[in-house]
Amino acid sequence: MVPKIDKLVNVLSTADKDVANFQVKLYDEMTTIEGLTEDGMYDATTMMATKLDLIREFFTMPNHHRKRDLIMAPVGPRSGDAIFANVERVNAELFTLTYGATVRQLLTDLEEVEEVNKQLDQMGYNIGIRLIDEFLAKSNVTRCVDFRETAEVIAKVGFKMFLGVTATVSNWDADGTCCSIILEDNPLVDFVELPDTCRGLYYCNILSGVIRGALEMVSMKTEVTWIRDVLRGDDAYELQVKLLKQVPEEYPYKDDE
Questions:
Q1: Which of 91, 120, 109 is nearest to 229 (CA)?
Q2: Residue 237: DSSP 8-state
Q3: What pLDDT digit, counting tens, does each position of 3-46 carry?
Q4: pTM, to two decimals
Q5: Which CATH architecture describes the domain 70-246?
Q6: How far apart are CA 113 and CA 110, in angstroms?
Q7: Which residues fall within 8 angstroms of residue 127, CB to CB, at 6 or more apart?
Q8: In a 10 Å sphere around its CB, with 0-12 CB exposed, 13-18 middle and 19+ buried, how is residue 87 labelled?
Q9: Calpha distance 247→66 (Å, rounded)
Q10: Given strand 220-228, what is the order of strands in its sheet?
Q11: Cα end-to-end span (Å), the chain
Q12: Of 41, 203, 231, 251, which residue is 20 to 30 A from 30 by alpha carbon distance?
């Protein structure tokens, strides 16, 4: 029985990089629990019970402790439509008007349109670094093989899950590190018309920040900018997402420690 549990622990360690913390705790627990025999060996029953308890804890710990190996994956096993159908939702008009009131207040407080653009992006970034936890927990995605698949998941699952809209990915560069995400609909702009004094405003700049923040939490440094905006006279909403670098994983310990 014990060898099978050891094998399960080893499988967990390869299935999730952040399980390193779990392994360290397992080691600490196994060197401090009561259950030593007279010759200093652990009682097999105590070892088994302790490992089972720690494994159970691993599977019930908050998702953000295990997310770093879940870099975003192809759609599956749950699609954006399936997730959207089962999540709690707020009234669309209330959501739109609340966001509009937020933008209006920023314009009043900051006065400069460029400062409002920066603030909206920062707000989105702060949301994105937290929203990734919910996304990973509800979508059950696994690791993507490249940035192309990551972009597809953002468009097909992420936007559908949180905004109820479908987006498409196009305009890839030759290196596969830059693309456009085009929104077919945008609930944030219902009832919105920008005055001439706000023509430089990227009203939905919060979305670029959300994408940037979420991707940074899965080790992708990106630059997200608006290419087209219907509120500024264009024919579509288009975000350009450019991968700047893939940040290597860092761990607080070395294998030989």
A1: 120
A2: E
A3: 444 444 444 444 444 444 544 454 454 444 444 444 444 455 45
A4: 0.64
A5: 2-Layer Sandwich (3.30)
A6: 8
A7: 206, 209, 210, 213
A8: exposed
A9: 17
A10: 167-170, 178-183, 237-246, 220-228
A11: 29
A12: 251
Domain boundaries, the chain: 2-61, 70-246
Residue whose pair of structure tokens reads 């009682």 in the numeric block: 43
For the stretch 123-182, pLDDT in tens is: 999 999 998 888 888 777 777 778 999 999 899 888 888 888 889 999 999 999 999 999
Paired with 226 in beta bridges are 239
Segment holding 129, helix H or strand E:
helix 113-139
Residues 56-80 pLDDT 10s: 554 455 544 444 433 444 444 444 4
Q: How far apart are CA 173 and CA 179, in angstroms?
A: 7
* Backbone φ, ψ for residue 240 (5° rounding): -100, 125
Going by C-alpha positions, the residue among 192, 226, 227, 184 that lies closest to residue 209 is 226
